[in-house]
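Q: Convert this sequence to structure tokens.
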Amino acid sequence: MSKSWNMKDSLHLFILPLGPQLLPLEWDKYFLELPIAERTRILKYKHWQDRQRALLGNILVRWMLKKFTNETPINIARNTLGRPYLANNTNWSGDFNLSHSGEWIVAAITNHGHVGVDVEKIEQFNEEIMAYTMSEEEINEINQYAKFDRTKLFYELWTMKEAIYKTGLFPNATPVSINTIEINKKRRDIHTHIFYIDKVHPVTVCWDCGQFPIVRTVLNRDQLVSYL
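A:
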């Protein structure tokens, strides 16, 4: 484990900007390091921004696992729900998660329990969608605010739903079916924290193993080269 990062009793978030489009040589430098199955997934995206988010997210997760575990090589598999995990792992009992939206990519890692993370870009939306995505309690809370604040709160609650779902602790649920207000009231073992990377990108991280300090680190693409 790298001595640069101490994760004994903390939860780490690594934040990476999407940045400008990678040049072909830059793209190949990252892309060719990935397994064929991951390359195939990435190339299914139509727009360069989506492909680049997926590529950099993949490299970021591998960089992060290399820093915090003793596993080599890094072998990532997916369970039946599509959730990634560190395969063939004998020395590490932690968890990790990844999200990307808009201009940002966010990865979370902990040595204990489960972790889920979600970032979204705030955009205008039709408020009728709330009837299909929010519980009655959540809608009532949103409707207490003026329109601008309602939009922000909608996205904050949506990132919380996604982060809770992505922990894997509710395998029979969907993000839509998760009631964040009810969970926050009844599940004292589940913790959430929300923050903004910038004015339009809220992030929620969710975990289940005690109250940990959260360490946030903003990276640049050059720092990922150490994985290669």
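The chain has a mean pLDDT of 92.
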